[in-house]
Structure prediction request, 197 residues.
Amino acid sequence: MIILGLTGSIGMGKSTTAQMFRDAGVPVHDSDEAVHRLYAGAAAPLIEARFPGTVDNGVVDREKLSKQVLGQPEALRDLERIIHPLVRADADAFLQASRTAGAAFAVMDIPLLFETQGEGRVDKIAVVSAPEAVQRARVLARPGMTSEKLEAILARQVPDAEKRARADFIIDTGSGLDTARRDVQAIITQLTMDRLV
Prediction:
């Protein structure tokens, strides 16, 4: 089974692109969705122990956690030490289930693939990309997002140009959904051919 890592900086359209793979029948593991589940499960008591007051009724309050972590490199590292192993275990279980089901390939939607040195966990990498102006407009339209928050997030991410240079495939989300869908279909076709070789 070929494992395709899907990544891209904030606001590049990765979630929409991941759904295009799902719509085409490809199994997709979404790291962000796994974090949401873990924040309401196994991660909650571990996060509350390190960041007191961030869990309400057994669920991590992302806003409260953000206040304790944003701009605090050591706190962020502590949070990553808690959550990354749990997400990895969740992903491993997904991959095993996909193999058992006989999937030809599976997509691992990993927002910080390059930032967490995750290249070794996948066979190929697809980067979702759009022009900077499109990216900024998308992100700043999100509730509660500010230019300062966006700059802090971007400072922690590998630049888009470097991601594109390190990718096996680039999915253009700045030219509309049809273009992105064509890019996704081309990747599916290529991976299907690669598996047959």
Q: What stands out?
A: The radius of gyration is 17 Å.
